[in-house]
Amino acid sequence: MSFIIRWIVTALAVAAAVWLVPGIQIIGGDSAWVGVAIFALILSLINMSLKPLLQILSLPITVLTLGIFYLVVNTLLLYIAAWLANSLFGIGFWIEGFGSAFLASIVISIVSAIINAILGPQTE
Question: Dihedral angle at the C-alpha atoms of 75, 80, 84, 87, nearest 10 degrees?
Answer without folding.
Answer: 100
